[in-house]
Structure formats: C-alpha cells, structure tokens
Write a structure and sequence with these properties.
Number of helices: 12
Radius of gyration: 22 Å
Helix content: 40-55%
Bound molecules: NADP nicotinamide-adenine-dinucleotide phosphate
Shape: elongated
Structural class: alpha/beta
Distance between the termini: 70 Å
Number of domains: 2
CATH class of the largest domain: Alpha Beta
Number of strands: 12
Order of helices and strands: EHEHHEHEHEHEHEHEHEEHEHEH
CATH architecture of the largest domain: 3-Layer(aba) Sandwich
CATH topology of the largest domain: Rossmann fold
C-alpha cells in the first residue's frame, strides 16, 4: 500500500453556459427561454419585475463569481415589454462591467428588436429586388405603430432615411406623443398620424408607398377597401400571424408576391405592382436572427452588446442569404 493519497481521477467538469434573463415584466417570455436553450445555454435563470436601477447590481453579481474564463460562458438577456426601458437597461448593464469581468448582453424586449429587424430587412430586400429601389426617401406608414414592434421598426426605417408616419387607432395625440418620444430617444425624425376613423386611415394610406402592420395580434388594421386607397403602394408587410390578416390580402406565407385583389380594388394603374410580405416570412427571418445573436454571445470569444442596430445588421445578413 502506498503512502501517497489517492490522486483525483475525475477531470473538472466544463463550466456550464449560464444565461441570466432580466425582465421588467412579471414573467420572462417562454419563447425567449426556448430560444436561449436551443442556442446552447444550459442554465437559464429568469429575474422578473427588474427595475432599471437594479441592473447594475445584478450585472456585477453575475460577473465576479466565475473568474475571467467563466465570464465567457455567462450571458445576460434583457426582455420585457418596453423598448426604451430595455435600451436603457442594456446601457446600464454595459456600464456596470469591470473588465476583464465582462459578459455579453442581448436585449430583445417582446421580440421587438429581432421582429422589427426582420420586417425592415425583408422590406429592403423586396424593394431592391422588385423595384430596384432603396428605403431612404420612401413614405412609410406604420399601422399599430405605437407598440413595441412598431416603435423599433419606425426607428430603423427612419434611420435609413425613410419618411416615417407612426399611426395610432387611438387618435393623433397618442401617435404624436409616441413619435416625439422615439425621435428624442433615438435622434430620428418621424411623425404621428391618427387612423382612428376610416377617413383618416384611408387618407394616410393614399399618401403611403410602404405600409407596415404592427398592431395587436388578431387585429385587422387595413381592409381590402382601405387598401384600394393606397394608390402609390409598393409593399405591404404584416407581422400579425393570428387571423384575420393584419392587412387584408397579405397572406402569412407571402414573401414578395402580388397582393391578391389589390389591383382590382384599386381599379387602376400603379397599384398592380404592390407586393406583400406576411408574418411567417418575417417570423422565419426573426427566428434566425435571434438564434444567431444568442450564438454570437456564447461563441464570439469576447463580450458583445446586442441591441437593435446589431439585430438589424444580422437580419440584413439573413435576408441576403435567402436568394
Ligand atoms: N411575425 C413575428 O415573428 C412576430 C414576432 C413578434 C411579434 N409579432 C407580432 O407583432 C405585432 C406587434 O406586437 P407588439 O408587441 O408590438 O404589439 P402591442 O404592443 O401589443 O400592440 C401594438 C399596437 O396595436 C394597437 N392596437 C391595439 N388594439 C388595437 C385595435 N383594436 N385596433 C387597432 N390597433 C390596435 C395599439 O396601438 P394604438 O392603440 O396606439 O393604435 C398598440 O400599441 C403582434 O401582432 C405580434 O403578434 C410577430
């Protein structure tokens, strides 16, 4: 019998990939939990009702316990419903890092960054493909534009130089206040329009070249008769996957095909070219963007901070790969 004590034979286990998920809402989105797991996170912990002032402490609590090597296997996700608050929380987490104790952070409140990114990237793609045009200078109307997806889509399209109108079915005051809020937060120029009445909705559509529908799921914001007034329409893109169609005639699987019935309804020239982009075509790109961003957090080799500009870059890359 030897005097030397037994040497441990077990190799230390590889540290698991840990994702801390912060949300200001009472619960974390199951969709995002599934997406994180499918992208390789092994331990996923939701933190609910998180206020912006709590983010710095939570972040520092997450970064110091695993050593510089462990931080590369640790990430933070920011969810919630409020797109401005999530942008602020992303900034707060970034500022709380103490290099080399620094982890990746990804914000996608209510899926709005990745959904809006997919929507705008697909519109860009079809505008170039079907018409040889760019989004810059185009008149864009966002029906249901005061919600999470609408606000981010507005910020993205306006950043690309589009002339963006954010519509609210609750009236002009609501549309104008949301437009003002995002203009100030993101340094862009949009305006608010009321679509509270049929006449207002049709007047707004008559001016528009591109319409996005980003209203509450299961709500139709433009009927076939409404669309007939959109005589300059090039593209109608609808993120709503729950029947009825958000924009009548834009089927969920449409990915750049003519809008059924639009030419007849418009009864004239110019409208015959309008094409649709449906919710499942947008959802397909959104899914890939979110997956790729989670993978980038885990495998990039250095900490990354992923907000909606990064989501948009990724969506453009996914859209470019569709051809
Ligand atoms: N395709 C995808 O991959 C994907 C992914 C995520 C989300 N989505 C969809 O994206 C859409 C927007 O999501 P969100 O979270 O941004 O929605 P949201 O914030 O819940 O609602 C958006 C807006 O809808 C408007 N609205 C509410 N009730 C309405 C009604 N009866 N008639 C007309 N407008 C009404 C509201 O604006 P006003 O009261 O100011 O008019 C609200 O701000 C939803 O349809 C959601 O299912 C799709």
């Amino acid at each position: 019998m030897s005097d030397t004590p037994d040497k441990p034979t077990e190799k230390p286990a590889e540290r698991p990939y840990v994702l801390h998920m912060f949300t200001a809402s009472p619960q974390m989105s199951p969709f995002d939990v599934n997406m994180a797991a499918d992208a390789g996170y092994q331990v996923i912990v939701p933190y609910c009702n998180v206020e912006a002032r709590m983010v710095a402490n939570l972040t520092q609590d997450a970064i110091f316990s695993r050593g510089p090597k462990g931080v590369s296997r640790t990430g933070i996700f920011i969810g919630g419903r409020d797109v401005m608050l999530a942008a602020d929380m992303l900034d707060a987490a970034r500022k709380a890092m103490v290099p080399p104790f620094e982890v990746s952070v990804f914000a996608d409140p209510s899926g709005s960054y990745t959904t809006a990114a997919a929507l705008v990237a697909l519109v860009e793609r079809h505008l170039a493909k079907a018409y040889g045009m760019e989004l810059g200078g185009k008149r864009v109307l966002i029906l249901g534009g005061t919600g999470a997806v609408g606000r981010v889509a507005a910020a993205m399209a306006a950043s690309l130089g589009a002339d963006v109108s954010i519509a609210s079915h609750a009236g002009h005051a609501r549309a104008a206040s949301v437009s003002e809020e995002i203009n100030q937060r993101f340094g862009i120029l949009t305006k608010g329009v009321s679509t509270a009445t049929q006449a207002e909705r049709r007047a707004a559509l008559a001016e528009t070249e591109i319409v996005f529908a980003t209203a509450l799921a299961g709500v139709q914001v433009a009927s076939t008769e409404d669309l007939a007034h959109a005589r300059h329409l090039l593209i109608a893109a609808d993120v709503n996957a729950v029947p009825p169609e958000g924009i009548a005639g834009v089927n969920v699987v449409n990915d750049g095909k003519p809008i059924a019935g639009h030419a007849n309804a418009a009864g004239g020239s110019g409208a015959t070219d309008a094409i649709g982009i449906g919710a499942l075509a947008i959802g397909n790109v959104k899914y890939q963007v979110e997956h790729r961003l989670f993978i980038r957090m885990r495998t990039g080799g250095k900490p990354v901070y992923l907000g909606f500009p990064e989501a948009f870059d990724e969506a453009r890359a996914v859209a470019a790969g569709l051809d």
